[in-house]
């Protein structure tokens, strides 16, 4: 279990450092000179990445199931992610490097998500039906804690301070060198902590593997499987749709959180990284607590409670002001993000037929990406309509509410010890 969870710890190097808090900001605000065109370009690049993931994830999951090589698939896509991260070192502080940097960032998003598909499918190999909730929660918590540690290393080692050099390492800021070095550090971090999974976790047993198909055959099988899944257990399809909505809201919380912190609540730009550290601590604690609670009450109740908690905290943020209020209610909001994410993964893992986990998690990734534009678009729409960034919170809340309403009628998996989901 620990070897498996260390991959989550290592993958925080991409998600927390490269994509969320450091390198995407460097590309738009420094390389792109903070222009609206640079921000739009980032949106186009990530939108294209989402489309590619939506197209490829089911095929990748099916092929990993068929070959019985989920670990190998995880290893290949992890190596590709690390390569794109290291490649970002070449992105200098010059507008001519904006699009090369965005292409690398988008490509990294694609291969990181494909690695996650195979990695999630391995959850059933490192847990039992009785422990799957706590194992998943432990993995999510490891990811958050890994993000905490690496963000602190990056902030104090390469970013803090206002002189010509960044952080304790004293790397020159000229030409963005201190941030470019962060990309190399993050790549090395992911490599080191991915190795235990590759060395210690065995491949899935050879029994009951589906036949391996080509790309066209995989999509034909996908269409047939969706139809069969709907006929046999339509609530699994309903869950995929509901989770696509509320997971888009969860992702938007982190995507727009730093924008709101600085633009609405008056938190300094340098302190955003420190808030990110605190947010990861709180979310990790929530993931662990939620995982233990889930093994007693089931994943649906944990997800519903988490969504209600997030909606309530976001509603308060609509009417309060100042850094202190953002710290208090912003952290209250992210407390519920961890258990919602973890229990969503185990909800699906409890439903997945043996030997088909990879394909189902491919669908999970695909449906999640299918509406990935929704919360960011509604955020922007409400900001434009009301002329205030604070109003964008309403757009994110609407997506969370829609996900909650869609989840409400979905039947949960069967109680622990029964062989199939409740129909």
From TrEMBL:
Pfam families: ATG22. The chain crosses the membrane at residues 12-28, 40-60, 72-91, 97-117, 138-159, 179-199, 249-267, 273-290, 302-320, 326-348, 360-385, 391-410. InterPro entries: Atg22-like, ATG22/LtaA_families, MFS_dom, MFS_trans_sf. Gene3D superfamilies: MFS general substrate transporter like domains (1.20.1250.20). SUPFAM superfamilies: MFS general substrate transporter. It is found in: Cell membrane. Keywords: Membrane, Transmembrane, Transmembrane helix, Transport. Residues 1-414 form the Major facilitator superfamily (MFS) profile domain. It is a multi-pass membrane protein. This is MFS transporter. The lineage of its organism: Bacteria, Bacillati, Actinomycetota, Actinomycetes, Pseudonocardiales.
């Amino acid at each position: 279990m620990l070897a498996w969870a260390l991959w989550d710890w290592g993958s925080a190097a991409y998600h927390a450092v490269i994509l969320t808090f450091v390198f995407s900001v460097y590309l738009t605000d420094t390389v792109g000179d903070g222009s609206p065109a640079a921000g739009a370009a980032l949106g186009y690049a990530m939108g294209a990445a989402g489309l590619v993931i939506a197209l490829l994830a089911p095929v990748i999951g099916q092929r990993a199931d068929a070959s019985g090589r989920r670990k190998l698939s995880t290893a290949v896509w992890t190596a590709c992610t690390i390569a794109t991260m290291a490649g970002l070192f070449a992105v200098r502080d010059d507008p001519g490097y904006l699009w090369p940097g965005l292409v690398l960032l988008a490509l990294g998003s694609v291969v990181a998500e494909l690695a996650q598909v195979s990695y999630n499918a391995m959850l059933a190999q490192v847990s039992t039906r009785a422990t799957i909730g706590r194992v998943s929660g432990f993995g999510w918590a490891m990811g958050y804690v890994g993000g905490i540690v690496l963000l602190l290393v990056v902030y104090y080692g390469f970013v803090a301070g206002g002189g010509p050099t960044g952080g304790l390492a004293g790397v020159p800021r000229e030409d963005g060198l201190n941030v470019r070095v962060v990309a190399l550090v993050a790549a090395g971090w992911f490599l080191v902590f991915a190795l235990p999974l590759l060395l210690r976790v065995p491949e899935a047993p050879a029994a009951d593997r589906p036949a391996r198909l080509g790309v066209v055959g995989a999509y034909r099988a996908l269409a047939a499987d969706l139809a069969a899944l709907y006929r046999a257990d339509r609530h699994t399809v309903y869950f995929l749709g509901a989770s696509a909505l509320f997971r888009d809201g969860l992702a938007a919380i982190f995507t727009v959180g730093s924008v709101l912190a600085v633009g609405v609540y008056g938190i300094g730009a340098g302190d955003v990284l420190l808030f990110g550290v605190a947010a990861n601590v709180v979310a990790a604690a929530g993931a662990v607590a939620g995982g233990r609670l889930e093994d007693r009450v089931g994943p649906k109740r944990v997800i519903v409670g988490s969504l209600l908690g997030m909606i309530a905290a976001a509603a308060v943020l609509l009417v309060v002001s100042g850094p202190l209020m953002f710290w208090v209610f912003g952290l209250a909001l992210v407390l519920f993000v961890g258990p919602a994410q973890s229990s969503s993964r185990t909800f699906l893992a409890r439903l997945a037929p043996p030997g088909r986990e990879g394909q189902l998690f491919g669908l999970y990734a695909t449906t999640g990406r299918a509406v990935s534009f929704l919360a960011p678009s509604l955020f922007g729409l409400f900001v434009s309509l009301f002329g205030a960034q604070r109003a964008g919170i309403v757009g994110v809340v609407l997506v969370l509410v829609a996900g909650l309403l869609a989840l409400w009628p979905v039947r949960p998996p069967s109680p622990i010890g029964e062989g199939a989901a409740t129909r």
